[in-house]
Design goal:
Elements: H1 3-32, H2 36-46, E1 53-56, E2 59-65, H3 73-97, E3 101-104, E4 108-109, H4 120-143, H5 159-167, E5 174-184, H6 187-218, E6 232-241, E7 247-256, H7 263-273, H8 284-292
Parallel strand pairs: 1-3, 1-5, 2-4, 2-5
Antiparallel strand pairs: 5-6, 6-7
Helix pairs in contact: 3-7, 4-5
């Protein structure tokens, strides 16, 4: 190989590795670029006094169940009321733990009859805000893979401000829109499921273990011969700037196997749903109060 050929080969190899290094740098830059959620979190934490006070607009809650003698239709209505109350308490507590101050809440709406307490104009605004919330959530979820490091660039409709005026708005920095649903298992159904697990499930367990071992060798395995709770809890939340209407946070999650009647579990899953929402630093007076407190 003469010197010219050697030089050409060196140049080709050098260009190849330069392209590899450039590609790796580009990938690393994309991977480390802050997401839209991270950018908003940083901004809110840096300007915490502008995002502290929270107003919760009417929360929608709906509970479902296969009713029977142990959980009648009237029982389900009463249960929905109780869970709705627990939900509002849990929301206020989760927000307080993140450094926010809930300055105003609104009623939890569990059924259409709850709208009868409002006049026709307010009912129409409630419907418009809920529709805007649902449409925005679906659009944000669909576009999430394409957001990368850009802001969310969504705003809630002006109907939210009109609804606040009708309800008597507070001096708030943030607005919270939330909708939750739950599927309940009746006491009778839960008893039957647990009894079946203790009898049929226990009897089938040796066969399950044997077939699992055989399936593992062959690349497949049977399902566990136990019936799990059909219950679930689902939370959807959207939080916006009360002044600019900018959407600052939007998330929804479903938690299979959870019982919304468990207040601690209800709050825990709501906390998980809001996990990526910005946590604000404590105010100076709060830090002073904490230092002076002795357990």
């Amino acid at each position: 190989m003469n010197q010219v050929q050697l030089v050409r080969r060196v140049l080709v190899v050098s260009r190849f590795w330069l392209m590899i290094v450039a590609a790796m740098a580009f990938i690393a830059g994309c991977a480390t670029e802050p997401t839209a959620t991270e950018r908003i979190r940083d901004r809110m934490a840096a300007q915490s006094d502008q995002y502290r006070r929270v107003e919760v607009l009417p929360v929608w809650f709906k509970g479902f169940a296969v009713t029977d003698a142990s959980l009648t239709t009237n029982d389900l209505k009463a249960l929905n009321r109780q869970i709705g109350t627990n939900l509002l308490t849990a929301l206020a507590r989760v927000l307080a733990e993140k450094g926010y101050e809930v300055v105003q809440t609104s009623p939890v709406l569990c059924e259409e009859a709850d709208l009868d307490t409002f006049d026709a104009e307010t009912r129409q605004l409630l419907f418009q805000v809920r529709t805007s919330f649902m449409n925005l959530s679906q659009e944000i979820y669909a576009n999430r893979p394409n957001q990368k490091g850009t802001p969310l660039e969504y705003t809630i409709g002006t109907c939210a401000g009109q609804l606040r005026t009708k309800l008597g708005s507070a001096d708030a920095d943030l607005l919270v829109l939330m909708e939750s649903e739950a599927l309940f298992e009746s006491p009778d159904a839960r008893h039957k499921r647990k009894k079946a697990n203790w009898t049929f499930g226990a009897a089938m367990m040796p066969l399950f273990v044997a077939f699992s071992a055989a399936g593992a060798a062959g690349g497949g395995a049977p399902n566990l011969p136990l019936e799990f709770s059909p219950g679930w809890v689902q939370h959807s939340a959207l939080i916006a700037d009360a002044r600019t209407r900018e959407v600052l946070f939007c998330n929804g999650r479903r938690f299979p196997g959870e019982d919304a009647r468990n207040a601690d579990a209800l709050r825990g899953k709501l906390k998980d749903t809001l996990a990526d929402f910005a946590e604000l630093p404590k105010r100076k007076e709060d830090r002073t109060s904490s230092k002076g407190h002795t357990p």
